[in-house]
Amino acid sequence: MQQLLTTALTGLTLGAVYAAFALALVLIWRATRIVNFAQAPMAMITTYVALVLIDAGWSYWAGFAVALLSGLVLGALVERFVIRFVSGKPEINAVILTLGLFIVLHALAALVFGSRYRSFPAPFGLTGFQVGGTTIALTGFGVFTIAAVGVVLIGLVVLFRGTDLGLRMRAAAFDREVARLLGVRVGRMLTLGWALAALAGSLSGLLIAGGGLVHPSYMDGVVVYGFVAAVLGGLDSPVGAVVGGVVLGLSLSLVSGYVGAELVPLAALALLMAVLLLKPGGLFTSVRERRV
User: Fold this and answer.
1) By CB atoms within 10 Å of each CB, which of 109, 134, 207, 244 scores lowest?
2) What transmembrane ranges does the database entry give (predicted)?
């Protein structure tokens, strides 16, 4: 029982990390209908910004806030000066461009920050809580991670379901010409979508780095699992992204704890294939097939 509880709590925390990254992918998909494969190195860059400030004597929370703000600005700049050049072209052009940006940002980070491993602090304890005489596998930073993902989820749900701004962003993503005719500033909405997605991605980078080691490639593995989590829940659903992340985290933790860590990638692939075969749009997709 103790091992099962430890495995489940570890999976819950891991799932929250995957959910944070999946939320960034879902946000940019809902706002622009593009899958941004450069989300991971963008988050890595902003994490390094926080680390440089913390090493310079700033508090963790000051570095945290500046990193989030840097993500907001970086996302807007990428959309305005990179993605905008393929606006109106087939969506695959933008996807390929984000893959190229993935490589470029990696190289720039290695040049500017170096390739060595560097420790990143955590604002809360990294040891499990004591319950009676037992230590459970849930840390203060794990609680912070879960709470932060919950706040982002609530914010996105309110944005897209309860505000005119969210409606304009979705309209700009689905049909730009019609949205322009209705008075929507499409360019601004797309820039805002990229900025908010980069902010959510920056949060995921900070959560993954907390109490661990960072280097230019430390986010690369999260791209795969975060994308799987987003697809599991449905790329159109913020709630689905969180549920997909938690399901994936719990599943991979159980596989690692009871079967073997070497089978974790295979388990993620099997879970993804099962969902795509049974419900291709994801578990929480709202799209319905139209029959005529």
Assistant:
1) 134
2) 6-27, 34-54, 60-82, 94-115, 135-160, 190-211, 266-287
Range of the domain at 61: 2-114+131-278
**Domain total of the chain:** 1
The residue assigned the tokens 């809902």 is 30
Backbone angles phi and psi of 120, in degrees to 5: -120, 130
Residue 58 lies in a domain: yes
What CATH code is carried by the domain that includes residue 267?
A: 1.10.3470
> Which of 155, 118, 154, 125 is CA-nearest to residue 142?
125
Residue 123, in any domain of the structure: no
Confidence of residue 292 (pLDDT cuts 50, 70, 90): very low
Percent of the chain with pLDDT over 90: 24
Report which of 14, 15, 72 is spatially closest to residue 43, judged by C-alpha positions: 72
Lowest mean pLDDT among 112-116, 148-152, 200-204, 237-241: 237-241
State the pairing for strand pair 213-214/134-139.
unpaired
- Length of the chain equals 292
Q: d(Cα 33, Cα 119) in Å, to the nearest integer?
A: 36
